[in-house]
Amino acid sequence: MPRVDRAVLDSLIEIIGQESVRAFLAEFQDLAAQQRFAIQAAHEAGDLEALYREAHNLVSTAGNLGIKRTSTLADQVQRAARTHDTNALDKAVESLLVELDAVVDDLPGLVKAASQVA
């Protein structure tokens, strides 16, 4: 699965404009870094409710921006947290944290690309 669904980004650019999409991506970069910290802290504390809540928010936010891999991994975390499936949860959280690190690194390029689309 690609990290970002370019068709979703292109559609957003068509609907709300380049500058708005660029601003949303820049905002998501900050949000993703904050949520990464919150997810890791909740996991380490064993706080399944906080873990569910943070992952749930990330599913929607990332999905709306076409950041599909993050959204999918966050969904796995929220499901495992909700069902108290600690075996699945550890792997899901680890995968999500790695992906969040990667997406935060990749977002400046997406922001730049979104501002260059005609």
Question: Could you walk me through the main structural features you see in this protein, from its secondary elements to its overall organization?
Answer:
It contains five helices and no strands. It has 118 residues and is mainly alpha-helical. Helix 1 packs across helix 2. The longest helix is centred in the C-terminal third of the chain and has 31 residues. The protein is elongated. The two termini are 26 Å apart. The model has no long low-confidence stretch (mean pLDDT 90).
What brief labels describe this structure?
118 residues; mainly alpha; 5 helices; 87% helix
User: What is the tally of beta strands?
Assistant: 0
The top-level CATH class is: Mainly Alpha
Q: How much beta, percentage-wise? A: under 5%
Tally of distinct domains: 1
CATH superfamily label? HPT domain
User: Which residues form runs of ≥5 with pLDDT under 50?
Assistant: none
Quickly give the structural class. mainly alpha
What is the CA-CA span between the terminal residues?
A: 26 Å
Separate helix tally:
5
Provide the succession of SSEs.
Answer: HHHHH
Quote the average pLDDT.
Answer: 90
CATH topology: Four Helix Bundle (Hemerythrin (Met), subunit A)
Biggest beta sheet attributes: none
Radius of gyration: 14 Å
Shape: elongated
In helices, the fraction of residues equals over 70%
CATH architecture: Up-down Bundle
